[in-house]
Fold this protein.
Amino acid sequence: MPNIVVCFKWVIDEAYIRRGSSGELDFSSVSYKISDYDRNAIEEAVRLRNESGGRVAAVTVGSPEATKGLKDALSRGPDQAYFINDASFENIEPSQTSAILADVIGSKIEYDLIICGEGSSDLYTQQVGPRLAERLGIPCISFVLKLTIDGNHIIAERKVEDGVEVTAAPMPVLVTVLPDINTPRIPGVKDTLMASKKEVVNIAKDDLAQTYEPTLQTTAMTAASMERRCVKFGAEPGDIAGFVEALEKEGVLR
Amino acid sequence: MAGAWIIADNREQTLELLTIGRELATTMGTKLTALLWQDQELADDYISHGADEILLLPPLPEDQPPGAYIPVIADEAQKKDPDIILMASTVRGKEMAARIATRLNTGLCSNCIALNLGEDGKTVEMERLVFGGTAVQKVTCTVRPAMATIPLKTFEPAVKQEGRQGDIRELPAPAPSPVKILERKPRETEAKDISESRIVVCVGRGIEKEEDLALARKLAHALGGEIGCTRPISEENHWLPEELCIGISGISVKPDLYIGLGISGQVQHVTGIRDAKVICAVNTDENAPIFAAADYGIVGNLYDVVPKLIEAFKT
Ligand SMILES: Cc1cc2nc3c(=O)[nH]c(=O)nc-3n(C[C@H](O)[C@H](O)[C@H](O)COP(=O)(O)OP(=O)(O)OC[C@H]3O[C@@H](n4cnc5c(N)ncnc54)[C@H](O)[C@@H]3O)c2cc1C
């Protein structure tokens, strides 16, 4: 029965980021969410456990404020969570996140299969999964749309530019999953209640083997701008005519 | 030691990277090295397109993924200490880049859309989109080598120059990867490239059934345009091929006219239409974010509005 580890990130919901008057990012009214494709990762971990038995541990690295995310993650079915937190983990880069995850997973958690989302919805660097595999020295299969456990092997269908590759690797192995792989559940009230009874292992910065320094420096971060006319029409005949006329005036119809 | 390296899955991508690689190598006064493992005949071709040196990797057995080369590439990079490594931002390239960067303990700018050499002639400032395209982030790498993955079509392909000379060196064969490819299922249909289309009609989840795509096709036909889609349509419903998915994880389009049907207008999608001249949208929800990103919007049911538009555009 496989021990499955699933990694997730608690991120700013980008839909609430505003553009400030001088082009800076305004985070004053943001809320947070579990990164979209990490929900697929959690769902897949739980699906495989329900099929093959074993356990699912959900792991996240973040600032201490991310506790809400733990409850959300656990309400999606994992048995246990590991919360690696420190105020300084708020804005770390993928090389650090993956190193911290490898430090903890490698020394404290039993694993046969590690599942990550394809990329996080905030930075979307798509690096943490492959970097974590490399740190742990285990095989990596990225961008997977179908996953099966076959004895001590993982069979994964991987989406590449020229089609689909069916690949196999001996466990332990790390996979990153695409949103195609499943439809994540929407947790109900009962799931949320159950989640609060599950074990959360807190891991502090001091519990890590070492500190991990950044390798990138952000020199600028500006809101992307898009100025549009924002004219709205209804669906009455007069509106349709007005709409078509506007496009004719723009000279974009041939 | 120094140098600029480029690594890509095929010739098309390599030629694009040779363009930016050549530019950087020339300004930095260093050598441009291209890695090659696919068709070994291409070595001279790459040299004539701007490479100074080719590192040849021996062909892999049929069941081996290119990820098998990672240890060999990382070892060579450790020995030669290049200033920068640029890789194609493809599925295989993105995974390989992240793993090579880990072995080299360095930083990687994923999906880098612009690169500029700083005034010191050494530091490369790299640009990428974050928060689904809400913001542009600029980064520099504080460790050697700087690394970036570059999406297709970011740079024009390099042009051939007569009489260029270069070295070809062979790298050792890698140990087999534990990941084996059991089967390759080629993609069934080649999709259209709509990145240069003048008119794009794009469909989103407001379309209820696959058959209803016909309605969008009719509108595109009436306008002489092509159809595209949002990610849920290609990735979750599989109604259209993913080459038609517009947005941060799909393609970018720059038509004169874009008409979005039943699309909410999440930033990940809108990022891919930023360069459209005129953006139009049809959506039942007057508060849908797409209206803030559109020049002309119609608040209405697409099943009611689109037939009316087809009629209007016909005349
Ligand atoms: C990391 C990441 C990368 C992503 N990359 C991309 C990408 O590259 N491209 C992309 O498209 N998405 C991408 N997404 C997904 C994106 O966030 C949105 O989920 C997606 O674009 C929404 O697609 P949609 O507008 O078709 O569907 P929805 O958001 O469900 O919107 C459907 C809209 O249709 C309207 N509607 C319903 N019925 C009708 C009707 N009868 N007539 C008119 N209007 C109707 C509704 O009001 C609604 O606004 C990405 C997400 C993440 C997290």
